[in-house]
Amino acid sequence: MAHKLPAIILLAVLLALGAPLVVVAGDPDMLQDVCVADYHSLKGPLRLNGFPCKRHENVTANDFFSGLLAKPGNTGNAAGSAVTAATVERLPGLNTLGVSLARIDFAPWGVNPPHTHPRATEIIFVLHGSLRVGFITTANSLFARTLRRGEVFVFPRGLVHFQKNNGRAPAAVVSAFNSQLPGTQAVAQTLFGASPAVPTDVLARAFQIDAGLVEAIESKFFPPM
């Protein structure tokens, strides 16, 4: 009577023979209804994919509420835009739920400069105004169009994108993300405002510009003291 091979030996034989293995994996379902972020229980700077959960008896309805997006942001800046984010850092009830929102307000001709969200796809809904929006693929193809009130547009995860107010009147959109903390990397700020700074010769060669111009651009992000 043939003896059965232990599972580990059978797996080794299959691997040696080059047999194809099918592995199915996915995020586990939540094992609780809610996991409200407990900002006060952090013991140090290390945090792994979210915040600790607040004890259930300490959870209130206010943990799931925010009035952050009710009022326009201050667009009196060089870009002429203001992003007000309702992420897990300011709305604790979002913890582990994988969604968040933001409101973006635009002064006339204001711009939300090119940027990326490394952890989320974004979809915007135009509250009022007219905007030119677009994203660039990794093949350097630009997909852009004009949006008006009530229309939506999607920016795929991680791709550089922008929004610009087309008119003389203020504009505003609501952005939704499939992440509780999508992250934002503004292209110009990331390259010219890093700390420590990206080497000047690297940026000069990348953009094919003079090193003095690189330093002038950097000074806009870190003005001399």
UniProtKB/TrEMBL annotation:
Free-text function comment from the UniProt entry: May play a role in plant defense. Probably has no oxalate oxidase activity even if the active site is conserved.
CDD domains xref list: cupin_OxOx (cd02241)
Signal peptide span: 1-26
SMART domains hit by this protein: Cupin_1
Family: Belongs to the germin family.
GO biological process, one term: regulation of root development
One Pfam family linked to the record: Cupin_1
UniProt-annotated binding residues for Mn(2+): H115, H117, E122, H161
Protein name, entry field: Germin-like protein
Cellular localisation: Secreted, Extracellular space, Apoplast
Disulfide bonds: C35-C53
Source species taxonomy: Eukaryota, Viridiplantae, Streptophyta, Embryophyta, Tracheophyta
Family matches, as InterPro entries: Cupin_1, Germin, Germin_Mn-BS, RmlC-like_jellyroll, RmlC_Cupin_sf
Assembly notes: Oligomer (believed to be a pentamer but probably hexamer).
One GO cellular component, as annotated: apoplast
Annotated Cupin type-1 domain residues: 66-215
